[in-house]
Amino acid sequence: MALDLSREHDAYAELAADGATDFFAMALEHGDGSVQGSSLTTHHPDGFSDADIQAFEVTRHALAAAMEPIAMRESQQRLLRTYLGDGPAVEIGDGHIKSGENTSVSAAILSADFGPVTFGNIGSPDRLDYTVFGPPVNMASRVQALSKGVNHPALFTSALAQNPQANTSSIGHHDIRGVADPVELFRL
């Protein structure tokens, strides 16, 4: 039976334009009970034969077993990219960041300062915490904690306020926990 491609999903038209003559889809049930779809196309002029479809059905469970680890890896990478960003996700996926390892980089922490920070997995084997720490991170946290007390939603240190493009005004010097001298803070 010929399809009227104008009434079907765009994917069918794209496959046909690429030379596909037949399309077959089946569900693959994974060991954890999740179900993934799998689709196959052919360029054979007669499409899939009954023997082809029977072979797909007979090998469906083996194909599901082979595809499950791939689907799990892709899901893991999406999750890592969502919560950690592209760079750290790749590093963790490639096995470069393990429990207790960290990496130092130079960074600008919004509202605080410029300087070296360290990021990595911190914690015990039972509970890992992927985090960033260092003097600029501490300063950012403490400066932002003051924002409610001085009734300004965003505060900055002089390291950021001195940027010629920043339109800030000083709100005076304030004591910052863990810093010996008062720090001048700025607002937008």
TrEMBL record:
The biological process GO terms on file are: cyclic nucleotide biosynthetic process; intracellular signal transduction
Q: What is this protein called?
A: Guanylate cyclase domain-containing protein
Task: List each copy of the Guanylate cyclase domain by range.
Answer: 110-144
Q: MF terms per GO, please? A: adenylate cyclase activity
Superkingdom of the source species: Bacteria
- List where this protein forms a coiled coil: none
Q: Which residues does UniProt assign to the signal peptide?
A: none
Q: Which InterPro entries match?
A: A/G_cyclase (IPR001054), Nucleotide_cyclase (IPR029787)
